[in-house]
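Trying the structure run again after the queue cleared.
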Amino acid sequence: MAFPFRSSLLAAACVSGAAALVPATAAMAATAAAADAYPSRPIRLIVAYPTGGISDTVARALGERLSAQMGTSVVVENKAGAGGSIGIDAVAKAAPDGYTLGFAATSPLTLNPHVGRVNYDPQKDVAPVMSVMYSPVLVVGTSAFSGKSFADVVGQASAKPGSVRWATSGLGTVGHVVLEQVRQKSKADIVLIPYKGAGQQMNDALGGQFEVMSTNASPVLSQHMQAGRLRALAVGAPRRLESLPAVPTLAELGYPKANLSSTFGVFAPGKTPAAIINRLNAELNKALAEPEVHERLLKGGEVPTGGTPAQFAKAIREESAENARIVKEAGIKAD
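Done. Tokens:
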């Protein structure tokens, strides 16, 4: 038996579906064509921190390699402030065409939204491209600290409450989270001294304005430690650093929740086509493998990473969930 009515509906549905498929296919073809032609003009790489720091140095080294590999200029632009959130916000609001990228720590996506307000959706507005490195967090003693080890930090603060001042580069930073985890576990009365950036923190550390600080690894820090002006007491890292084999990790010292490091990577606007993300990821992995770039990271105390966009995105989700728990438990708030 024939069902002319149903057949007519089916035919209409097929025609309608075919008509709907045309613009979708055209859009896919246009995206593929754009990816094939990419890049056809200069790429802007926004560094979410000031000039002269390790993130700026690494970003510029990657930019040089990308320029050589991709046949276009890469213009590095520094947009510092709010713990990296200003730079990431600029990336989030840029056109999703692969011509604006960002270099930053993951904290503007995984930590800052939990301690204060940000003007972007960390899950939708920013696309992870590749993890570049992790930067260990070092706990360092200054000339004002009379102790010799990390155990002396806790011991002195417990015996004489308020006698140990611990400086961080800002409220709600990874270094601040490290301190809060140490205070929570040890119950020691350690005084928080929050700065508004690592520059003044370092200057005051050299002047002995406080006993201890937590800060990311950098060539400048390494120079001061080698000269004996500062002394490494502990490190937040998955394992001991090759450059500081005698310095224990915070996990080894009994503070696994404080054993934190900062992961840095490259990001794109949230709706950037997957084909462009994958092209950039391949080029960045190639650049990171270059001996000159690799050695520059190691000399600064950083650890090269690399990997796929999916791996980076997964790590960011997990880090954000863990930071949300830590911030809630410690009651951490930004300015």
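The first strand starts at residue 43 and ends at 47. Worth checking whether this holds up in the mutant runs.
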